[in-house]
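Hi team,

As requested, here is the filled-out complex form for the s-citryldethia Coenzyme A run. I kept the field names the same as last time so the parser does not choke. Let me know if anything looks off before we queue the next batch.

— J.
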Amino acid sequence: MSEMAKLEVGGQIYEFPIVVGSEGERGIDISTLRGKTGLITLDVGYVNTGSCTSSITYIDGEKGILRYRGIPIEGLAEHSSFVETAYLLVHGKLPSPNQLDRFSKLLTEFSLIHEDMLQFFAHFPPASHPMNILASMVNTLAAFYPHVDAQSMTEEVDITAARLISKIRTLAAVAYKKSIGEPMVYPRHDLRYCTNLLHMMFTSPVTAYTADADVVRAIDMLFIMHADHEQNCSTSAVRLVGSSQANLYASISSGITALWGPLHGGANQAVMEMLEHILADGGNVEKYIDMAKDKDNPFRLMGFGHRVYKNHDPRAKLLKNMCRKLLNKGPGSDPLFDIALKLEERALADDYFVSRKLFPNVDFYSGLIYRSIGIPTSMFTVLFAIARTPGWIAQWKEMVSDPDGRIGRPRQIYTGEGARCYIPLPKRTGESTGA
Ligand code: SDX
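And here is what came back:
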């Protein structure tokens, strides 16, 4: 018999079961609340509300723990590859050598996009943001590869997952080429996942490109660290859209759109723009710390704070070390990295940030790494989307495979006008047409 939570309303006691997760997390199951009490809960931004149970990713925000299918992010970043991590997220276990080999071969096999898709790219305005193009083109995949319903996620998981994980990389590279006015570069079957992405982005009709091994490893680790993060904004969008039985590509296109926002995945681009602005403004870190603390100033310290982490984001710690290593190997220093270090040092010594438990998140250092390996700022969030695709697929698959799954449809508390009559146009004399 599970522990029960008691709620007293109008002198009556109601009981609701407490759900306990495999890591001891506890939640009140209120699925019978409205039926028993006539009440709903109100929780703007879902700060206190769980949307599902899930066995994919575990985060302990207080301790700064992140695990994919039980494996700590630190171990995966050090020992795994993005392709292996993608398999782990989608299937729930690390692949055998044969399973990994087959999955890798499928990713290679699916790297081309239908030639007719190039017509779509030709008609986006030149200044289109690559995230805009990516969200549109992932949705368009359903027109070219229509069999992506829930059944395809159960019977041909590897094929469905590999097709999208591979093609979103090609679409991203074409979007980048479009944004710089260069022709598309086709993928090569002799290149592995991250190397092929760099090849498609940086090879041109006039210059050959050979990816540096450290750059490839950096991209691979960045992708591992961005691959999933439980019920974040974009993953919740994927689940909500998918709950209506919309197809996988439409669901993930909604996730890409949600990720684009500067409060979410778009923060990595916003961090870079913030650091460049601070540098151009003389590197006055104090001024921007004070602006971030000023309630009357809309400025926020981008890359700081997190809904779940109230301790250091483990990914930010790993990325900060990776950034330092790449800079030591390369130019030795980067004024933007120096400003980032100063911002972190000042913020973590300031009660405004400490009392609100605002620490650097995954986006604070990731952009500096992308920049140090030649990725343009406009592509930072696009690379985040590529990396998050296995997580979105795993979450969508878990949702569509749930026998008790239902369409997501939140309730509301209405605060508008009471019932009133329609007033025919000729009788609407003044500005206000209220009854
Ligand atoms: C990602 O959810 C995920 O898992 C996301 C992600 C993933 O992997 O999918 O981890 C990726 O999206 C990381 C977050 C990237 N976004 C940013 O870096 C944008 C800057 N950060 C914030 O806007 C904010 O911290 C959020 C959006 C990340 C979290 O917002 P919350 O949980 O709604 O917190 P809040 O806005 O209610 O802030 C609480 C307090 C407020 O002050 P008070 O009203 O208590 O006085 O902290 C303040 C906020 O004003 N605050 C900040 C701040 N973040 C919060 N003040 C200054 N600078 C900031 N960055």
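Two things worth flagging: Residues 157-179 form the longest helix (23 residues). The mean pLDDT is 94.

Thanks,
J.
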